[in-house]
Specification:
Shape of chain A: elongated
Largest interface: A-B, 41 and 40 residues
Number of strands of chain A: 11
Structural class of chain A: alpha/beta
Mean pLDDT of chain A: 87
Radius of gyration of chain A: 25 Å
Oligomer: homodimer
Largest sheet of chain A: 6 strands, mixed
Strand content of chain A: 5-15%
Chain lengths: 367, 367
């Protein structure tokens, strides 16, 4: 007992940042030993703090996982090579391996939102490749509470539904169907100020990405203008937005389950069908409220098209109107030449191109 | 035919404001004849435009309802008597009856949100009294799209769930269980600028409420600071917020239905019960996702207490934790001395005071 007590008193106390990280680690049921875990580190305060917090947990024997740092140089900024070098040096000094990558996102409009999206796509592709190569089970990114609030507000500005306002999930598959999980262990609790403070406490001079100050990006303007104004109403608005996101996420999940069940109930096996997509019974769809119905229709279209690209609320509303027969019309057009037709109490999804061919009036369907 | 054509050409064209109002009237399935309908008119642009639009519809024989104007003088502003007089004169000139009321809201903190709430309560009480007296079926208020956006943002700033973010409904019972419906026929389509423009078009010089410019009220700051900043991101953010509100309202309704069904399924008739509130089966509750479960628990508590005053999310989360047995504890405290206890696979709701009496260990319940 005495020995154990003495040993404990010599050990430096776990920082509160690392303690919070450990709590979240347990809450998310992440592995505490043996696993290979990729940590995405840009060199900014958030990801540097994540790496330092994990390092603290490993060195104090709270975690026995194998950390591998991944850094992608997007080649978009003059300082990006220096950032890559800095991350490599820090990681080596801490005693972990680093996998560095480089991409070249040449773009005409360097400040467009598209560039942001392209950079994100390249980053996640690199992380998946890295995780697969080293057989990692988890990839960690350092999104914070503030990032979550920004995401929720950006979606709100577009008039999103519950799914969009749910923000970023704390844990999900890195790619659909992949075994690798993408985890954000800071999302539920860490403010940006916490990550900066923790880096300072560890006396690590994190890198600053000048694009984080470029107000040509909506996200930067949300961070620098909108959130500060909202804080003048409620100083804890970041937490409030995060709470709303998590409640709406639960709503969206419950409604998706319901929609799934409705879709199964409403499917009608089709003879002589022009498509492989099953038709849906109008009367079964009408038994459920609009929130469930609309999600079932969305899922039905997704399964047939393979994606929801360019599918807007206006298309879903048009399909819904077929159900109640409002405003005449038995056909609703979707993007990419698909359409939904109401025939004899059923909704059918079909490819317009095929239907453009001259078709003889169907004897079976008439009457 | 000729006569009819000629008559039509003499008639002044219906203003687009009145045409939009009529479209919404039909969408809300409001009565087009015989009904007595109370129009709440403060004298501001919104309610004056509502009255003028209805007047247009009545005089052009689109509506054959009996309009009665109601005006409550809150006695809060020096100009309030003049407003009352102005409304009376306008209404009489248009040829309708007016019911005027006066209240006296003396309050220590004239600028507090409580005053806003007290004024609202007094107004709705007056409207209900008026509607009952003249046997009206509907009471109309002039809330606009902009009011809806402000409401949604005020709720968002507090971290509300889907119910709060649903904003104000376009139609509801004026009081729970009342036959009188409270209707907002401008809510879905009219901007504040539309009501002002329409008043000007009709050459009516509406009254201006100086409290609408008082930035001590959060709502005024949302209007004058937050919404303008949000418009710099998306010029149609008011419509976006209204769309979000209406989608979340549909979600909340669908989930309330589900919760209602879950509550019925989970209820266990109790022998030897300390309360009249039925217990709930833990295993039945656990079959449903958190979004449905939490709403069922909320409804269960509402039915037992009669209200949800001071019930916060933290209380519901504590009750939920009893279900999964997380973090020990088989008792969750509610405000006002009520508590929820987990016993033998059931949740029981009881009044703490009664349980504070020394109770012999129950022989029936043991083991």
């Amino acid at each position: 007992m005495k020995t154990s007590n003495r040993r404990r008193s010599i050990k430096p106390k776990l920082s509160s940042f690392a303690a919070n990280l450990l709590e979240q680690w347990r809450r998310l049921a992440l592995p505490t030993s043996e696993a290979n875990i990729v940590v995405a580190v840009s060199g900014g305060a958030d990801s540097t703090a994540l790496l330092l917090g994990l390092d603290d947990l490993v060195k104090q024997n709270k975690l026995a996982v194998n950390l591998i740092v991944a850094h992608l140089d997007h080649g978009l900024r003059p300082t990006s090579r220096k950032d890559a070098l800095w991350v490599k040096e820090l990681t080596t000094e801490l005693g972990y391996d680093v996998v560095s990558g480089r991409t070249n996102l040449k773009s005409e409009s360097q400040k467009s939102e598209n560039l942001e999206q392209a950079a994100r796509d390249a980053r996640y592709k690199f992380l998946l490749k890295t995780a697969t190569k080293i057989r990692a089970t988890h990839v960690l990114t350092a999104h914070t509470l503030d990032d979550q609030a920004e995401t929720v507000l950006l979606r709100l500005l577009r008039g999103s539904a519950a799914e969009g306002l749910s923000g970023t999930p704390a844990i999900r598959e890195l790619k659909k169907g992949s075994n690798v999980l993408l985890v954000r262990p800071l999302l539920a609790w860490a403010h940006r100020s916490d990550t900066e403070d923790y880096c300072r406490q560890r006396q690590i001079d994190f890198r600053v990405d000048e694009m984080n100050d470029d107000e040509a990006f909506s996200r930067v303007r949300v961070r620098k203008q909108l959130l500060p104004l909202m804080k003048s109403f409620n100083n804890r608005v970041v937490e409030a937005l995060s709470r709303t996101a998590s409640l709406l996420n639960e709503d969206a999940e419950a409604l998706a389950d319901e929609a799934e069940r409705l879709l199964e109930l409403a499917q009608v096996p089709q003879k002589n069908s022009e498509t492989t997509t099953p038709a849906l019974s109008v009367s079964v769809l009408l038994q459920k409220p609009p929130a469930v119905r609309r999600r079932a229709l969305r899922e039905w279209i997704l399964r047939s098209r393979g994606d929801l690209k360019r599918l807007e609320m206006v298309h879903l509303v048009a399909v819904e109107k077929l159900l109640t027969g409002e405003r005449g019309g038995r056909i609703a057009e979707l993007p990419d030449g698909m359409k939904v037709t109401r025939k004899q109490g059923m909704l059918e999804l079909s490819n317009k191109k095929r239907l453009k061919m001259p078709t003889a009036p169907s004897k079976i369907r008439r009457g």
